[in-house]
Write a sequence for this structure.
């Protein structure tokens, strides 16, 4: 064993430190928004959206977007039960009701049929999270949204680099949100982005993002409504510009790490990794292994084994409806069952081949030591 293997850490080169130093030295006064404006323009163009607004977090981007839709008390917002708590927090802050639905066994993303079953006259939005870089079934979800007259929103916090056909994750719904938290493929430390191609919606979010002061407002220090202050700093945006310049390389390395795990772990029967449906590209933010129920391998055994090997592997998101503040939705069978037999694997850019081998061999040893041998598995795997 040769030292701890962390879960994630960003790839920071001389380019990022040079841009950050430039912003710190020169990005004030008349230049105080230069990197922000540039990051928004270049990020929107990379994603294929007409407009982008940089924020202090992905959560803030989602909060402002939902507020711009006028979502509030009495409204329902549908989202997957398998999610990070950040996706539901803004719904709760706005006083609306989250409606948790199940995910698909293959993609771990929201099940369109379950969405359809939960639509009501009070449904005001469908939030689609592309979990761990896996893509949700966008054709079905967008068609459903159109038929129901309900906007589809993409939480693409984990899906930079993922593509559905020729569209990038985040560019297909009314708006998409991204996170640039230090664990993400592209980071600014903390930070996020809202993207949209709807000009009216953009203006609405822009006003909200500036404490409710509309563009062109000539009266100084005058707010037309109560808005938000979820802005990204120029120094963070400078780091973002450098990361975006390297985005192809950053995504390619994440994909390479996932591919290496896939090859090394294929010796194990009954292990499922992030899917890449035909016609899609998985940005591979978080390589995740899910064991078939017949293997008998549990999250707890995986956590114990990785902790003993000094490897920082993490649990699959608990279903949000299992949190104390929500009503239990155990009937979301996949969302409740998958986390108990799954684990997220380390995947930072600078991981060596040796690190990947060590993680894979640890996982294989845990599975062989703790797992059941079931003849049905070799047939189903
Ligand atoms: C699915 C999902 N949604 C939203 C967020 C929120 O992003 P942030 O941490 O930048 O607020 C995250 C970030 O971890 C996430 O993974």
């Amino acid at each position: 064993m040769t030292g701890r293997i962390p879960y994630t850490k960003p790839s920071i080169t001389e380019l990022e430190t040079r841009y950050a130093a430039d912003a710190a030295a020169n990005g004030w006064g008349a230049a105080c928004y230069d990197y922000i404006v540039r990051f928004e323009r270049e990020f929107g163009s990379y994603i294929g959206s007409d407009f982008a607004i940089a924020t202090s977090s992905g959560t803030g981007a989602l909060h402002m977007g939902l507020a711009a839709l006028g979502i509030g008390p009495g409204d329902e917002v549908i989202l997957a039960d398998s999610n990070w708590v950040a996706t539901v927090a803004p719904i709760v802050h706005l006083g609306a009701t989250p409606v948790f639905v199940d995910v698909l066994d293959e993609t771990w993303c929201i099940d369109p049929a379950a969405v359809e079953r939960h639509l009501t006259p009070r449904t005001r939005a469908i939030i689609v999270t592309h979990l761990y870089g896996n893509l949700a079934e966008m054709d079905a979800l967008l068609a459903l949204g159109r038929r129901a007259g309900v906007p589809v929103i993409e939480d693409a916090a984990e899906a930079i680099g993922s593509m559905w056909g020729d569209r990038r994750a985040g560019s297909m719904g009314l708006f998409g949100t991204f996170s640039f938290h230090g664990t993400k493929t592209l980071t600014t430390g903390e930070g996020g982005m809202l993207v949209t191609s709807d000009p009216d919606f953009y203006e609405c979010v822009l006003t909200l993002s500036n404490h409710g002061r509309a563009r062109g407002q000539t009266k100084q220090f005058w707010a037309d409504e109560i808005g938000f202050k979820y802005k990204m700093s120029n120094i963070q945006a400078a780091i973002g510009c450098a990361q975006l310049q390297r985005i192809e390389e950053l995504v390619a390395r994440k994909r390479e790490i996932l591919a290496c795990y896939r090859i090394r772990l294929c010796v194990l029967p009954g292990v499922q990794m992030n899917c890449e449906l035909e016609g899609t590209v998985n940005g591979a933010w978080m390589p995740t292994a899910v064991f078939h129920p017949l293997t008998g391998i549990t999250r707890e055994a995986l956590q114990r084994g990785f902790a003993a090997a000094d490897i920082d592997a993490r649990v699959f998101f608990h279903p949000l409806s299992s949190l104390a503040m929500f009503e239990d939705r155990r009937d979301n069978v996949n969302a409740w069952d998958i986390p108990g037999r799954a684990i997220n694997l380390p995947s930072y850019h600078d991981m060596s081949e040796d690190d990947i081998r060590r993680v894979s061999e640890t996982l294989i040893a845990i599975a062989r030591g703790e797992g059941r041998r079931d003849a049905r598995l070799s047939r189903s795997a």
Summary: Residues 57-59, 83-84, 86-87, 129, 155, 157-158, 179, 181, 192 surround pyridoxal-5'-phosphate (CB under 6 Å).
